[in-house]
Amino acid sequence: MIKLRKILIALLLLFSSIFSARTVLADSVKELTNVITDIAIWDTSNGRYATQSDGVYQLTQNVSYSFEVDFDLSAYDGNLANGDYFTFTIPEPFTVASTSFELTDEESGVAVGEAVVTSNGEGLGATVTITLKNLEEYLEKTGGTEVQGVQGTFYTNFSVTEVITEETVTFDTTETTDTITHTIKVSERTSTDYSSVIGKTNFS
């Protein structure tokens, strides 16, 4: 399990998709809303979910974590095309680096999407935009003609640079299926905190 998590933390996206034999229609590009079903915090240094106490995530200042984001596009079954996209807005006080990565289907080896992470600056959050692509190539290799049942999980790294006694953040409700909030406490990093060493050992 930990080995699998290490791969996922490297920002690989796994798609679990089912296809039927109908025609894919290349409609105008559209935003896919209310498709994020869950958001959790993963402790990348220790290879487990971040510690919670009474529902409050116990984080450490300047330590690397990841958002584990589950999504489900089934509301758009039969109506997905290249260029369609959805977003994950990361609010303050999280610090996220700009990056990009492809979303590759394991079975076919086709990159079926691209994720672009745009940072807003230190402590100002970011926007992750995931855009579908190469769907015709995917369907040609798998023998289908219409995309259905697409769901999966992706990871986005972040840290918190300030000490916070307690703060509740709410994620964009136009992106999630239900209201998702997290309460976090961020403690100062001490000389006995070996998180960075563990992280370097595990993920070198």
From TrEMBL:
Domain SDR-like Ig stretches: 64-131
Topology with respect to the bilayer: Peptidoglycan-anchor
GO biological process: cell adhesion
SUPFAM superfamilies linked: Bacterial adhesins (SSF49401)
Signal peptide (residue range): 1-21
Location relative to the cell: Secreted, Cell wall
Principal location class: secreted
Keywords assigned: Cell wall, Peptidoglycan-anchor, Secreted, Signal
Protein name, per record: SDR-like Ig domain-containing protein
Origin species: Streptococcus gallolyticus
